[in-house]
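Friendly challenge for the regulars: who can give me the structure tokens for this chain first? No prize, just bragging rights.
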Amino acid sequence: MRVLTDTHTLVWAISDPESLSAAAHKALATATVAASAANFWELVLKASKPGALVADPLPWWTKYVTRSGIPALAIRTPHVRALASLPELHKDPFDRILVAQAIAEGMTLVSKDPILTGYGAPVIW
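First reply, four minutes later:
Bragging rights claimed.
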């Protein structure tokens, strides 16, 4: 199984693994895991907001994703095509592109967000 991390899942897996569900923890430990450029983009855009998951995402990403060898899935044309066919169930553009990437790549998304299950992509939490 190949899994794609939602942004909170990625951060929690590294900094607060106790926040993960048992199923999410198992998936991340046993599957082939990928992050997304959308995770990085979201962390950068939300870094200055109260309650940001990561205060300084540039060095955090380098240390925990790049140097750890976690592949980061780029946003490509097939992902945007899958995004275009998604219904408006969720307003968060980061979550929507992650769902589209999971669908286009045949991956399972690891996310706590229950709304994402409505898109038909496999979601583990």
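The beta strands are 2-5, 32-36, 72-73, 108-110, 123-124. The mean pLDDT is 96. Your move, everyone else.
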